[in-house]
Amino acid sequence: MPGDDRPARRRRLPRPFGLRTRLVLAFLLVAAVGCGTTAALTYRAARNAILEQTQDTAVTAFRQQVETLNVQLPVDHDGLQNELRRIARQGKPRPWRVYAEYGDVRVSSTDRPASTVLTPELRRRATAPGATHGSFQRVVRNGTPYLTVAVPAVFGNFRGLPEDHPTGLVLYAVMDLGEEEADIEAMVLAARDGALPALLVALVPALLAARGVLRPVRELRRAAHSMGRGRLDTRIHAKGSDELADLARTFNESAAALERSVTELRRAEARARRFASDVSHELRTPLAGMLAVTEVLDEDAGTLDSDTARAVRLISAETGKLAVLVEDLMEISRFDARAAELHTDEVDAAEMVRKTLINRHWTDPERIATELADGIRARLDPRRFDVVVANLVGNALRHGGPPVTVRVYEEGGRLVTEVADRGPGIPDDVLPHVFDRFYKGDPARTRSAGSGLGLAITQENVHLHGGTVVAANRPDGGAVFTVRIPL
Question: How far from each other are the two terminal CA atoms of the chain, in whole angstroms?
Answer without folding.
Answer: 12
